[in-house]
Predict the structure.
Amino acid sequence: MKFPPFLLEDWLIRCQGARIDLDHSGAPSPYGEGFDPCIGGEAWLNELDLEEKLIKALAKAYKVKEDRVAVTTGAQNANFTFLLSCFDKKDRVAAEVPSYSPIRACEEALFKRVLDVPRPRQDGFKVDMRALQKAFQNGAEGATFTNLHNPSAQMLGKEEVKEILEVAGKKDARVLFDEIYREMSYSEPPPGAYALGDNGVSTSGLSKLWGLGGLRVGWLIGPEEVAQQVQIARSYATHHLSSRSMAVAIKAVQKREWFRKRVLKIAKHNLPAILDWAEGEKRVHITEPQGCMHFLVHLPEGSDDERFSEMVFKRFQTAICPGRYFGAEGSVRVTFTGSREDLEQGLRHISKTLDAFL
């Protein structure tokens, strides 16, 4: 199995140390803002005991049986381990476009063929259901989506997810929904895919809503046999999670609603600056986010999003992300997890770069 260069990660590394970071989509670190977990001796408990406690906490938080939960070293590891352990290399898998590039890269490395399911910008990034049906007619054994969508921050509602699962269910196919952003919806979050169909599989982790990506804690919720298979595969690949990470994660999961309120507060504070800028900057269009802490800026037709992002970084030490790393050429992804002052200045830098770019 061969993997392509991880261009998204390479870009993030390249932009480390940017004066203004509009390229980090997770919530800021919560330490010192009301989350100061006192884990004491728990950090030194047996790894198996802590893993059991973490699974119990997740099962309680998401109202599922414990044997439907598998813990992994991050959401990305949950996605990869599911794809690796629950399909064969000869299989075909359907995948949304645009999407989070590591999911697509794993599919292309693991499987015989990946079948595109477009989420067109002109249709509000909704799933092309005809393309999905065609993919299953052409032999797809499974499908992958993100909800909320990465990079557009658009939400698939309950009925949309159910329809996707029903289409897949006619072919006895499982559908993975990476839901790392689901609980960052500005409205009531839709139910997880795991709760909407027997073939629904949800993955998530502590990097976005929680701002605790450094813990490398993720999970999968799905059918019992899927959770078991993922747990076995993870045991071979990465063995147990860090005891300290699991101890902190347990405390974080127990305060899940506090983390959600914190993210919504940051978003509410920063969104007006984005909308004001978009109203005045007529040379571009934006897809207004329905959640998350990022949005897409659609550059003038024919624009090279990578070259534009490089210009913004070189001229102003402001980091934004080329949309092509998600399959959204001609757009850039902009995040707003920092201060409103930095966001407003960063948006001015985008406008000044447009002056030179066009």
About this structure: The chain has two domains: 7-28+257-357, 40-254.
